[in-house]
Write a structure and sequence with these properties.
Length: about 1000
């Protein structure tokens, strides 16, 4: 844009601002004219105002906007009543304080601020919009950009930011005058909250009561409770001895470097065993780029989107063979003072050891294959910062803490992350508590990130605090559903029933009546949200009719509603040991949508005709009405099938399903589908006390496979139908081929330790080679190998079909060319979208425009991929916590397997409990006697009895399992000790 001109004219009683843009592209100029209508009837929305109710006109729907700002707003400790106006920086940096704290009521959000927040952070924008819909907080959006009284035109040579700041100040001034003139019954002051020094100074000059967030909090009656919640202002930080991380490159240099290929962009992954080592995957390199040491990581957090610069080839290194934890390296740091950013002894050894390897004149082939390119972080594109959970380090709390604000360290539960420095006077009373903190900044002159206290979750080790902590740590939305969402549910509530008059509604008339089919569900024990049910019967021509019936969630969850937006945001239900965090309100998930037995339910059905070899003869898709005959657990279904005395039609149908499922599975395996493994356990809770009682490995029955095969078949069939109908926006799921480099380490370990190898030419070659890797002396070895192979795979991901070419749709693990998720819409939002697309594909109802828009679909996919991954991690963390609780009273000795060997420790997997633990060298024996053989993946040491022992990858080891409280993170876990 090289020019912008604004003109005004009057039309139909409205002021029209005409914006003329001149855009230059490829040497040509294009003139763009946009009209911006200004109104004289936009209300202030204060109940105190005598003028606005009389001048306000109804909207397009004939409705009047609700007046929300209270006629008795809050008073300051030393002053009168007031309304607040928020600046953009307050919303972006203190949304948690504004959202949760008593004191932020009757808040005016200028439209300018709302749009700036949306452009800079969609998650915070979503939270701000939710506040504006809350009746309790009394937040309102004032459309200053469309009001004649508050709109300001951009002046010559004025930046967009300066113009927006002026627009917000104009809104404050107008609002104060408007209330003074039109609300004589009560004097109300307008307070402008702004942490931008320049904007605040200008506001004060213009007669506006402008304050920083800290100044406003100090003026509140409950200031003592709130001071510690104010985000840290990095400009006010003063350190005794300044340090210096490398400064980030300018935006122009970053963008230019990425464009010309001298810089690379990617996501940082910090090693879970070495906090000084990170990796960034970029398409230009077969292997990840290594980031070794504090300076090269340069303040990057795990999960940050960063820009890195490649280091010279002479500095390329092997990944570290050491375990390095921050608690050991930073043990003597104090929160008040900073020393120079000097390399620790552990970090120096890390770099020196790898340097010796890389500078060998003739490294062995094995060493050469392990060397990876190295890089350094030169810029941050997007921070992954969120709420973090941890506890205050007791050693960082001084004796004088409590009388005045002082610095202390918060040790986070995630060992991949650095400790955070916060400033609080509550440190003594917060010791032993799980607390939530937010990060405000990480200046280049600070060794640690700076943050602030948000709230306390409760005592360390209390079940409530630990459960909420793991939900926050994995960014799981667990707050109750809002009133706006609940208002979308059927008014009949639990009394809702399938209408008896099937001709009473045009959509119900389109449904197929399948209530005569012998349908049943097969799920885990005590399942309440039943997504799927099945039926099968023999046809007169000797083929079989098989039906998969899926809960018709989209009958109740309509696109564009608050209920749909909430489901899209949550993305998935989250299953913990002791509770379930629902994607949709319980009324839908466990009642109206759940395919409970003996009641009629709406369903979306996929019905095939299959021949005796399980080949598809034809497939039909239909919205339907079903009545499930029974809800089986896997065990009960298996017992019924195996009981030859049961010859009823329902049981015969289940036997048909089992027979066909075996043929379907064999077809998949023949095509190259992978039969991988993961250590899955179940924690049993005491029915009376709800305490964890015992742990067992989940049993896999034939009925598990029965359900799985037909769900896979339904997902594949729906994927084909939806892609045919919507080739650019079909909701699909892909599993990319793993790069050969992912298996290099595993194959090298197999070759050295077992004389075996896995093949990667195709999924079929990999599956066959995994089958061949058997150890006659150890029946569990093949399962162990499959667990380790699973970790070498790429993660499956949701995507919109227009994002990739058809060959890239392939699901490597399932060995199919196209796939989606359709069969669990109660607990996955992907399935909700797939249902809507399938309904449109069969002509049942039109598809909402949001699911036809490629950009919007990509946004949905990005969110549900993140939510799905977080839900998996949260579930595993819940199991880990409860296994630790079980072991408090059930210490035992078990057989384990060494799956990784470092120079100063080993990692052991215990199959019985599905747990994995690090055993450090100091607990193994004499650290000075240790010899690490990197090429043979073995560690030799003198144990505590004086005997010399060698442990290598894949070795069986006997371990004692005890429940301990981690000294650093205060997390209860099952700790392993070598026998």
């Amino acid at each position: 844009m090289v020019a912008q001109v604004e003109r005004k004219r009057l039309t139909a009683g409205l002021t029209v601002t005409q914006k003329v843009f001149v855009r230059s592209r490829n040497g040509g100029a294009t003139k763009i004219v946009r009209e911006h209508y200004l109104r004289d009837d936009i209300p202030c929305l204060s109940k105190l105002c005598n003028l606005c109710p009389s001048i306000m006109k109804p909207d397009a729907k004939g409705e009047f906007q609700k007046f929300t700002l209270s006629d008795t707003p809050l008073k300051l400790a030393n002053g009168g009543h007031h309304y607040l106006v928020l600046d953009t920086n307050i919303v972006l940096h203190a949304i948690d304080l504004v959202e949760n704290v008593h004191g932020f009521f009757d808040v005016l959000v200028p439209q300018t601020v709302l749009e700036e927040v949306r452009n800079r952070s969609v998650p915070i924008y979503t939270r701000l919009r939710a506040l504006c819909k809350s009746d309790d907080k009394r937040f309102v959006v004032f459309h200053n950009e469309f009001s004649e009284d508050t709109y300001v035109a951009r002046e010559a040579n004025e930046s967009i930011n300066d113009r927006n700041d002026r627009a917000i100040r104009r809104t404050c001034s107008w609002f104060q005058k408007h209330l003074n003139d039109n609300s004589p019954q009560l004097s109300v002051n307008i307070i402008f909250l702004c942490n931008d020094n320049d904007n605040r100074a200008k506001a004060i000059t213009e007669g506006i009561d402008a304050r920083t967030l800290a100044e406003y909090v100090e003026a509140l009656p409950n200031a003592d409770e709130l001071r510690d919640l104010v985000p840290t202002d990095s400009s006010e930080l003063q350190r005794v001895n300044e340090i210096a991380y490398p400064e980030y490159y300018s935006t122009a240099r970053l963008m230019g470097g990425i464009k010309n290929g001298t810089l690379y962009q990617g996501i940082v992954n910090i090693s879970s065993y070495n906090f000084l080592e990170g990796a960034v995957n970029v398409p230009s390199f077969k292997k990840p780029l290594l980031l070794l040491g504090r300076e090269r990581l340069n303040r990057a957090f795990n999960g940050d989107s960063v820009v890195v610069e490649l280091l010279p080839k002479s500095q390329w290194r092997e990944p570290s063979s050491q375990i390095i934890e921050e608690s050991a390296v930073e043990a003597n740091d104090t929160p008040e003072d900073e020393e120079e950013l000097k390399i620790s002894d552990q970090e120096r050894r890390l770099l020196a050891q790898d340097a010796m390897v890389s500078h060998k004149t003739q490294p062995t082939d094995e060493v050469a294959s392990r060397i990876q390119p190295t890089a350094k972080v030169v810029g941050i594109i997007r921070r992954s910062w969120r709420f973090y959970v941890g506890q205050i380090a007791p050693t960082s709390v001084s004796e004088n803490s409590g009388s005045a604000p002082s610095n202390c360290f918060v040790i986070l539960m995630d060992k991949c992350l650095p400790k955070i420095r916060i400033r609080t006077r509550k440190a003594p009373e917060l010791l032993g508590k799980r607390i939530v903190v937010a990060i405000d900044s990480w200046p280049s002159t600070s060794k640690f990130p700076e943050g602030h206290f948000v709230r306390s979750l409760g005592d360390v080790e209390s079940a409530e605090a630990e459960t909420e902590a793991l939900l926050l740590e994995h960014d799981v939305e667990y707050r109750p559903f809002s009133k706006n969402v609940l208002d979308c549910l059927p008014s009949e509530g639990h009394d809702w029933k399938v209408p008896t008059d099937l001709d009473g509604d045009e959509f119900i008339k389109k449904r197929k009546d399948l209530r005569a089919k012998l349908v049943c569900s097969i799920d885990p024990p005590n399942c309440q949200d039943i997504d799927d049910a099945l039926h099968a019967q023999l046809l007169p021509n000797g083929n079989y009719e098989v039906g998969v019936h899926i809960a018709d969630v989209t009958h109740f969850v309509k696109a564009g509603t608050a209920l749909d937006a909430e489901g899209a945001s949550r993305g998935t239900s989250v299953y913990l040991v002791d509770k379930r965090i629902d994607m949709l309100p319980m009324l839908l998930g466990t009642d109206l949508c759940s395919l409970n037995p003996y009641v009629e339910r709406f369903a979306f059905s996929v019905i095939w005709e299959l021949d005796s070899d399980a080949n598809i003869v034809k497939v039909d898709f239909m919205k339907s009405i079903i009545k499930s005959r029974e809800a089986f657990s896997y065990e009960k279904a298996q017992l019924r099938i195996d009981d030859e005395s049961n010859q009823d039609d329902l049981t015969k149908g289940m036997r048909i399903l089992l027979q066909l499922s075996r043929k379907l599975k064999q077809k998949r395996l023949d095509a190259g589908a992978l039969n991988l493994a993961s250590p899955e356990v179940k924690v049993h809770m005491d029915s009376e006390t709800s305490d964890p009682a015992e742990v067992e490995i989940k049993k896999q029955l034939a009925t598990n496979s029965l359900v799985e095969e037909f769900m896979l078949l339904a997902n594949i069939s729906v994927a084909r139908k939806n892609f045919d109908a919507f080739p650019q926006t079909a909701m699909l799921r892909r599993h990319a081929n793993p790069p050969a480099t992912n298996f290099e380490n595993l194959n090298d370990m197999l070759r050295v330790r077992k004389g075996m190898a896995v093949s990667l030419e195709s999924s079929k070659a990999l599956a066959d080679s995994l089958d061949r890797c058997e150890d006659p002396a150890d029946p569990y070895f093949n399962t162990l190998l499959r667990i380790m192979a699973t970790r070498c795979m790429m993660a499956a991901e949701y995507f919109s079909s227009g994002s990739y070419g058809y060959p890239e749709f392939r699901h490597y693990g399932l060995a199919v060319d196209i796939y989606t998720h359709f069969t669990s819409p109660i607990r996955r939002y992907c399935d909700v979208v797939a249902h809507r697309q399938l309904a449109a594909a069969i002509g049942y109802e039109p598809l909402d425009l949001s699911h036809r828009d490629k950009g919007k679909m990509e946004t949905v996919c990005k969110n549900i991929n993140r939510r799905h991954r977080n839900a998996q991690f949260a579930g595993r963390a819940s199991i880990e916590y409860y296994v630790g609780q079980v072991m408090k009273n059930n210490e035992s000795t078990q057989l384990g397997y060494a799956i990784r060997v470092f120079s100063n420790g080993i990692v052991v997997l215990v199959p019985k409990f599905g747990i994995e633990g690090l055993i450090k060298l100091e607990s193994l024996g004499d650290i000075n006697s240790a010899r690490f053989d990197e090429e043979n993946y073995s560690l030799t040491f003198t144990d505590h009895t004086g005997a010399e022992r060698t442990i290598a990858v894949f070795d069986q080891v006997e371990v004692d399992i005890k429940s301990v409280l981690d000294e650093v993170t205060s997390k209860r876990k099952a700790e392993l000790f070598l026998k």
